[in-house]
Amino acid sequence: MIIGLLLLILTIGVYLLSKRVYVLSSKIYASPLIVTPLLIVTFLLMTGISYDSYNAGGKWLTQLLQPATVAFAIPLHKNFKVLKKHAAEIAAGVLSGSVTAVITSVFMAKWLHLSSDLATSLVPRSVTTPIAMNISQNIGGVPNITAVFVILTGILGAMMGPSVMRLFRIDNEIARGVSLGTAAHGTGTSKAFELSSLTGTISSISMILSAVFTLGVTPLLLSVFLR
């Protein structure tokens, strides 16, 4: 228990330090979402500490995901009028993005010649982790592998998203929020809040809608594309 607590403190310390470096450098590769896991994994490998020992303290951070997600309700309330005004556009954008994410995942799995288990584990990669793991289990995937795909998708989305939007000159806050929330879930939403409060708010509602839409369309799309 003491080791778990010390490792929890170490994780928080590494995160705060890497966040400070990220703020000063503004380089995406210095993001604490990338640096912190790499440093912690390296530390565990070098010291021989098992994941179970680390997770004795680290699990508390995981459990904070639920109240952190609920906290998104605050900016949603503050920007309710904007959300109401653009509800149709947001819903249409998220639905098309969710369908595209599932279809591209299926074709990516076929292109890489992945097994059936890996293919179904890859499909919900653009959904926030708890729901993605649930979807994966329901469609015959491996939830733990799905969690890895979700994390990779979120990190890559947060890294590449702003550059892609600059490339295509997407400067509308609604469009930016829908893009990041739909494609990169919680990690993308974190990046969206760096752009603006409204972008982050739109991203958070898009992340939620994406989970709902993906949950609904995945079985139908898999029956069509994975026959």
Task: Explain what this protein looks like in three dimensions.
This protein has 12 helices and no strands. It has helices spanning about 1-25, 30-45, 50-65, 65-70, 75-80, 80-85, 85-110, 115-120, 130-140, 145-165, 175-195, 195-225. The longest helix is centred in the C-terminal third of the chain and has 29 residues, at about 195-225. The chain is globular, with a radius of gyration of 18 Å. Helix 11 crosses helix 12. By secondary structure, the chain is mainly alpha-helical.
Quick tags:
mainly alpha; 227 residues; 12 helices
Helix content: over 70%
- Determine the mean pLDDT: 88
- In terms of quaternary structure, the protein is single chain
Number of strands: 0
Question: How large a portion of the residues is in β-strands, by DSSP E?
Answer: under 5%
Radius of gyration: 18 Å
The helix-strand sequence is HHHHHHHHHHHH
Low-confidence stretches: none
- Overall 3D geometry? globular
Euclidean distance between termini CA atoms = 49 Å
**Count of DSSP H/I helices:** 12
Largest sheet: number of strands, sense, barrel closure: none
Structural class, by secondary structure, is: mainly alpha
